[in-house]
Each structure stands twice: as C-alpha cells, then as structure tokens.
C-alpha cells in the first residue's frame, strides 16, 4: 500500500538539496520541519510557521530530540505572512493542512489564510522548486479547503508551474496531496 506521507517526502527529495532554503508552512509537531532541516543540512535554512504556541514548543522539542542542525527559524505567525519573513526564493515547501495532532481539533487551517499562503508560497518558489500540500478532506473545512486549492492551482499557467494531484481514489476521506513544481531556470538547461 502507498504511504502518502512517505511519498510526499520522496517528491521533496527530487528537488531539495543540501544548502537550500525550505519552508514548513504548518509546523505542527515538527516532523516535517525536522525532515527539511536534516535535508538542507548545516548550510541550508528552514523557516517554519504555526499560529499555536504549543506547535512551536513541540517542534523545538522534536528538532532537539532528532539532533537537527540549528538551521531553522520557528515563527509564531500565520503562514499567509510568509513574505514578511522569507525574503529569498525557497527550493521546497510543505503544507500539512488540518489541525495540530494532539492539539485542539477545533483549531484548523482556514481557507481565509490558506489561499493567501499558497499564493505567496507559489510566488516565492524558486525555479526547479517544489511545494507539497497535504489536504485532509475528512472534515468540512478540510474538504472545502481542498476544493479551493484545486480551483486556484488549476487556474495557473502550465508554462509556469505544474500542479499534480495524488489521491487514493477508493478512499474519499483519506488525505491527499497536491504537488506544485516550477520549471528549471533557462540557465540550468544550458549547463
């Protein structure tokens, strides 16, 4: 059986290299932040966002316990404010929408901030970059969020980005993810 979260990371690894910049738009308990931190190594940098103080505390603990390099900035703010903190293009980004595992399930990502966050994320994405968005349609906001994201990404030029949906068809409430990839720069094609 396909493990979608593992597949999510495999796609990230096709783009992200040591020394790159990455963004975890929804740090949660820090597992994606740790994955990104280890992947970019000591010379890279990871920015991680969450609106819940509990997420920052949990992520800091995860990063320490997993022996991650100190190459990260944990940001207690909404992911839609990414451009206030990340000033350079980044190579890989991850959204894990929904609610904080082990946290208050009434606090979820919301369409009002998720769409501006994804718009900003796409705008900041470097050439040959990747943005993975995990969607959890098992609750009403998650289902609406997923539809909104698909509608937005479907409207983007195929010549600018490629948006791919990865979904288990015979399990409609299972999480799925959307992968957004940018084309390599023209300079990369000439080398």
Please tell me about this protein's structure.
- With 191 residues, this protein is an alpha/beta fold.
- It has one domain (4-189): Rossmann fold.
- The protein has seven helices and seven strands.
- The protein has helices at 4-13, 31-40, 53-65, 82-85, 111-124, 140-154, 186-189; strands at 21-24, 45-50, 72-76, 90-96, 125-135, 161-166, 176-182.
- It has a seven-stranded mixed beta sheet, with helices on both faces.
- α2 links the parallel β1 and β2 (45-50).
- The longest helix is centred in the C-terminal third of the chain and has 15 residues, at 140-154.
- It starts with a helix and ends with a helix.
- The mean pLDDT is 89.
Rg, Å, rounded:
16 Å
**Record field, number of beta strands:** 7
Spans of at least 5 consecutive residues whose pLDDT stays below 50 are none
How many structural domains does the protein architecture include?
1
**CATH topology title:** Rossmann fold
Strand order of the largest sheet: 3-2-1-4-5-7-6
Q: Helix and strand string, N-terminal first? A: HEHEHEHEHEHEEH
Q: Please describe the biggest sheet, giving its number of strands, its sense, and whether it closes into a barrel.
A: 7 strands, mixed
Measured by DSSP, the beta-strand proportion falls in 15-25%
Please estimate the helix content: 25-40%
**CATH homologous superfamily - what is it?**
Vaccinia Virus protein VP39
How many alpha or pi helices? 7
**Average predicted local confidence, pLDDT:** 89
Termini, distance in Å? 39 Å
What structural class is derived from the secondary structure elements?
alpha/beta
Shape assignment: globular
